[in-house]
Amino acid sequence: MNASPLLALSPLDGRYAAKVDPLRPLLSEFGLIHRRVQVEVEWFIALSEAGLAEFAPLPAAAVDALRALVSGFSETDAAAIKAIERTTNHDVKAVEYWLGERFRDQPELAGSLAFIHFACTSEDINNTSHALMLRAARDEVLLPVLDGVVGALAALADANADVPMLARTHGQTASPTTLGKEIANVVARLRNARQAIAAVRLPAKMNGAVGNYNAHLAAYPELDWPAFARRVVEERLGLAFNPYTIQIEPHDGIAELFDAFARANTILIDWSRDVWGYVSLGYFGQKTVAGEVGSSTMPHKVNPIDFENAEGNFGIANALLSHMSGKLPISRFQRDLTDSTVLRNMGVALGHTLLGYESLARGTAKLQVNRDAIDADLDAAWEVLAEPIQTVMRRYRVADAYEQLKALTRGRAITRESLHAFVEGLAIPEAERARLRELTPRGYVGCAAELARAAARGDTPNAA
User: Structure pTM?
Assistant: First the structure.
């Protein structure tokens, strides 16, 4: 049967296949096999340079040929390894045998077949491979797309820094803000979350069957194997070395990374829901796209589907990321196999994360600010000025300031005139009464505009 996208069980391989293509060579089974080959090759080359009596240093041409197996690794190569696995029923051993087949054709390598996968357990290869896969997916695909989302929101925050908007704490009218400031809040949170994602150091180990270099020392007791393994992990693979493990690297770094991605996704779920609400209120319109249909029966509709899709994809991603970050650091005794099954779904979780980023970016590009709707809501909400009036009354020690404004405004329709009449009767300096009379809902935004512009630039206002 042909693998038609219409028959895909996962939408990542069907409906949304093209959107997650950048992750395929990195987080697929091909990506895992590719990284296994890379790790095996680097371990082999390092052994040749370790001064072992039975394994002389390789000629430069042989080293280049080995690394060419990695740089030129193809789907045909991966398929050949899978064919070997059908006999071995062991995925890592299949990589070892595939390499052995290629070494036999090269005289400078054929005599050293025994040093492929030397003293390694499968997890020495797998844990380093998973770390390499995740680092590449994070640095080459996910962070650049997230940076695009942050940049688009920062530009929107800056452009609308001075646009007054009614706030809605608990869904009710509240002290005004600006549209730009509300977007800037998201930008600031996302930048922190992005920094946390980028800062995670992915650890790896190369210490044998139970983490004690048992086989290594049995063969070469004179070699400082912990130092050797550290050099391979840190210098050749660019990962963080973990010296204390069981058979598997305990996956705390992967859990930390998945938690960091989930935190950013949660922030974006929060924002997606707010944008949905602002579209519903009419604060945002959406650019129409020729040929698109919003409703199968209501021709007028332009639905905020990009933000709904983003929310849904982030939710699926976070369910998987949460499960993996909670499960992966747990292994019975010196190891069990449950982590292997779970790790095969890294691409699913991060694929839905990527879909969420792309949906949010697409929706953000369609947003159009509707000043008329925003202004109309502000102009009908004079009750929000109860806060500044009672606060000024407190400054001048007017008794029961809060209670007086509560009695005036709660559950009542408030107008400019009714507020001004109240202000006229206050026992405060005339200059203060005049200042309060000049105040409008549109003008009562504090330093929201300055905060919005600072956040859009990436500044921290008044930071020490």
Answer: 0.94
Answer for the pair 143, 194: CB distance below 8 angstroms, yes or no.
yes
CATH superfamily membership of 18-118: Fumarase/aspartase (N-terminal domain) (1.10.275.10)
pLDDT of residue 1: 44
Q: 3-class DSSP state for residue 264?
A: helix
- CA torsion 246-248-253-259 (nearest 10°) is -110
Residue whose token pair is 């000043």: 371
What is the rounded CA–CA span in Å between residue 413 and residue 419? 11
Q: Exposure of 310 by Cβ count < 10 A (0-12 exposed, 13-18 middle, 19+ buried)?
A: buried
Strands 284-286 and 203-204: unpaired
Token pair recorded at residue 3: 């693998």
Q: What is the mean pLDDT of residues 17-25?
A: 97
What sections of 160-247 are H helices per DSSP? 179-199, 214-219, 225-231
Active site residues: 170, 295
Tens of pLDDT, residues 53-64: 999 999 999 999
DSSP for 42-98, please give it: HHHHHHHTTT-TTSPPPPHHHHHHHHHHHHT--HHHHHHHHHHHHHHS-HHHHHHHH
Domain ranges of the chain: 18-118, 138-219+248-291+303-371, 381-446
CATH architecture of 138-219+248-291+303-371: Up-down Bundle (1.20)
- pLDDT of residue 2 exceeding 60, the answer is no
427 phi/psi in degrees, rounded to 5: -90, 70
For residue 459 the two structure tokens come to 């500044």
